[in-house]
Amino acid sequence: MDLITLQGWLDNLSFAVLFVTLLLYWSGAAFPRFTWLPSLGTAGMAVANLAMAALLLARWIEAGYFPMSNLYESLFALAWGVTAMHLVAERMSRSSLVGTVTAPVAMGIAAFATLTLPDTMQASEPLVPALKSNWLMMHVSVMLLSYAALMVGALLAIAFLVVTRGQAIELKGSSVGTGSFRNVKLQRHSETVAQPAAAMSTADGGTAVLEKVQSTSAEPLSPQRLTLADTLDNISYRIIGLGFPLLTIGIIAGAVWANEAWGSYWSWDPKETWALITWLVFAAYLHARITKGWQGRRPAILAASGFVVVWVCYLGVNLLGKGLHSYGWFF
Asked: Helices (DSSP H) in 64-140: which residue ranges?
């Protein structure tokens, strides 16, 4: 079997495994008594991660250069990053809910690369002179990994908003935490009389004190849902905290490479402009969390908006056919 045939098998395998993984996670969420379903989902994510790594390695061997020079390769690199960050976030949170939001995104990326892109955009081509640089590996790989981390963190923030039904949840405790989970006091705001606090054990043996206020306008959130909300908020913060410095390093590396290739560190190319917008959105999120002490719904909404901004930065401006980072015209 030659490398081109192997790549065809691997990209289809990645898509198929991610599709089955999506079904496993969603079935596990619908039928929580079947605890083995999420475990199979985790295994599926790991298999898909390895299949995409093998795909990128095969293209590297075939083409002779780092395989992130066209849209097809970068999509699979991004999907690989999403599955990798998923495994990190799932291990940190010990919650299968992570997979219900990350699996659809990873599967959608693989499906777009495998089933939608024309063959001409999937084929390896010789590098243009500007891309024949060691900065290709440094800049592109770090940027794609940062996109993956920020996407996963934003997806967990969206999951937080869904779990809390958009209600105002105040998480009082350390934003960073000292163990796997924080000892935390959660309080849901309302205008009515408070109920007694309830204590629950967290996954690391700590105690989460849940103090909620019953609302006459919304159904009260259960202690289990409140604890899950705290976990999602915490892990989202940590994953975004990982992605943001990677984004910063990637932008700096891109500026140095641009100066080497085009004689200017910054030219306000559409891609550069949206990279700056992405950086500012997540900088505002981290500033609000660290300096202002924001927790709960407000930073989650900001992170959720960042999910859209990342996609515009990564794919939207590239498909318009304008600028130095264009992949082509899509109508």
From this structure: 71-93, 97-111, 119-122, 135
Res 320 pLDDT > 80: no
How many Cβ atoms sit within 10 Å of the Cβ of residue 327? Answer: 18
Residues 298/91, Cβ–Cβ less than 8 Å: no
155 is written with which tokens? 């997806």
Alpha-carbon distance of 92 to 5, in angstroms, equals 37
Position 172 in a domain: no
Distance CA 20, CA 107 (A): 9
Decide if 304 is inside a domain: yes
Please write the tens of the pLDDT for every residue from 256-309: 887 887 777 878 888 888 899 999 999 999 998 888 777 778 888 999 999 999
| pTM, 2 dp | 0.81
Q: How many domains does the chain have?
A: 1
120 contact partners, CB below 8 Å, separation of at least 6: none
pLDDT tens across 208-245, in order? 444 444 444 456 667 777 888 888 889 999 999 999 99
Q: Where are the beta strands (DSSP E) in the chain?
A: 169-172, 185-188, 198-201, 207-212
215 burial via Cβ count (<10 Å: 0-12, 13-18, 19+): middle
Assess if residue 216 is contained within a domain: no
Residue 58 lies in a domain: yes
